[in-house]
Amino acid sequence: MHKDRQQDLKKAETGAILSIVSYIIVTVLKLIVGNFANSKALIADGLNNFTDIIASIVVFIGLRIARKPADKDHTYGHWKAENVVSLITSFIMLLIGLEVLYSSIQAILKNEMQSPDSSAAIVGIISAVIMYGVYLYNKKLSEKVRSSALLAAAKDNRSDAWTSIGTAIAIFAASFNLGWLDSLTAVVVACLILKTAIDIFRESAFSLSDGFEEDLLAEYSKAVKQVAGVDALVSIRGRYYGANIFLDVVIKVDKNLTVEKSHTIADEIETILYEEFHVFDTDIHIEPFKTD
Question: Is residue 158 within 8 Å of 132, Cβ to Cβ?
Answer without folding.
Answer: yes
